Each structure stands twice: as structure tokens, then as C-alpha cells.
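Entry 14. Ran structure prediction on the chain below.
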Amino acid sequence: MRLVIQRVTSASVRVDGQTVGEIGKGLLVLLGVGRGDTDDTARLYAKKLLGLRIFEDENGKTNRSLADVGGALLIVSQFTLYADCSHGNRPGFTQAGDPAEADRLYQFFAGLCREAGAPVQTGIFGADMKVSLVNDGPFTIVLDESLEKK
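Output, C-alpha cells:
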């Protein structure tokens, strides 16, 4: 899996002109599912995401988690996080997960976050989505395969 996590003061996603997901303070998560990702992969990334302490405390230190600040998640599927640009100028996506399995893992991941108590909004898997956000900081983190090697 690959996650691009952006701390936001607000974020939303629209499909066909309709808002399908919207949050205030929290995290916008762009989620890519790769070949070979499993339920265990989703569990690992969900646990890491929910435990990240990237919100400021009263002393201005990034010491608070999403739950600590009462924040929400907007999770948007994005297979293009698996773009391979190493050959030519047209990206290849052979490392992205099979669409049916990627959709299942995307929904599973969102469900894990909900079960842990996080308010979760999502986009629509495979749809042409328009994502808007107000990045807070900006503060952006990428979680990728290096997480799995630890």
C-alpha cells in the first residue's frame, strides 16, 4: 500500500458535481493498493495512520493523534500512486493492484478505521473525483513499502 497523508483544516471530494465526502479538521488520505497487498497490509497501515502524532499540542509540538484532536479522515482511492515513470514519459501502472481486489481492500481499510472509532468519509472507488483541501502546515507524509520492512 501507499498512503499520502495530508493534515487538513478541511477537505472534500466531489463526483459528478455532488459532494460524496467532506471533513473539517483531520487527515486527507490518498490510498493506493498494490499487487500483493492483503488484509494484513491494510491492518498495518490503518494502525500506523491512526497512531500518527502529527497534530500540534499546546506547546506547538506535533504530539497529538487524530483521535486526540477529534479529527476525521477523508480516504480517497488513488491507483496512480503506483505510477512507474522509469521508462519513457508515459507512466505504467503494472504494480497497482487488481481493481476488484483494490476496491475490496480500500473498503476494508476504511472499515478498519471506522471500527477504531475514527469518523471516516470516502470517495468513490474508480470514479473521476475532484478533491479539494486546505492543507494545514502544510504537513504531508508518505507511507509506503518501507513501513512493511521494519
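Residues 2-147 form a domain with the D-tyrosyl-trna(Tyr) Deacylase; Chain: A; fold (CATH 3.50.80.10). Will compare against last week's run tomorrow.
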